[in-house]
Amino acid sequence: MSADFVLLGAIALAGGVGVVLLRNPVHAALALVAVFLSLAGLYFTLGAHFLGIIQVIVYAGAIMVLIIFVIMLLNVQDADPGGLDQLPNLGLAALVAVLVLGGVVTAAVVTGSLPGPGPEAGALALSGGTPDVIGGSLFRDHVVPFQIGGLLLLVAVVGAVVLVRRDEPQEGSK
Q: Is there a contact between 76 and 157 (Cβ–Cβ < 8 Å)?
């Protein structure tokens, strides 16, 4: 493992922790930008330059502008000064986290490596990182998940508009 990969992975982990723990939503969004940029750097170290560029343009650029816009639109203030003990399902969340971590560790011990795609999948992904191959795979083999993602984004935008909409008083009523 190269030092670049370890450094970028550490930045991604630190940014992810920042997204979860920072109370100010704008600071959490900036931590998410760090995660997106470090992920782009990881793509570059793996030789998937097109995916790295797309990561920077789409996620670190357009998606973060959308997230900041929604934060400003909703006028989100800092969270209450209470701590993690005020979360309603903290025990359940901790139990799920321990179970997932235990499953990953168990799979790593049993198989001798972390679970994931085999080396042939990585070689195939790195050899076919051109826009033609990615677009063909996206619209031929993964069209349903792509459409579901678009539908989820549409529902999120409509939900944000409904949450922000202010009911104005009707004429003649007080």
A: no
Tally Cβ neighbours within 10 Å of residue 27: 14
- Is the pLDDT confidence value at 170 over 80? no
Report d(CA 14, CA 11) in Å as an integer: 5
Residue 22 burial by Cβ neighbours in a 10 Å radius (0-12, 13-18, 19+): middle
Contact 38, 12 (CB under 8 A): yes
Rounded CA-CA distance 99/16 in Å is 20
Catalogue all structural domains in the chain, each as residue range(s) with its CATH number: 1-77 (1.20.120.1200)
* CA 38 – CA 11 distance, rounded (Å): 6
* Global confidence as pTM: 0.57
Q: Over the stretch 89-99, which tens digit does the pLDDT of each residue have?
A: 677 778 888 99
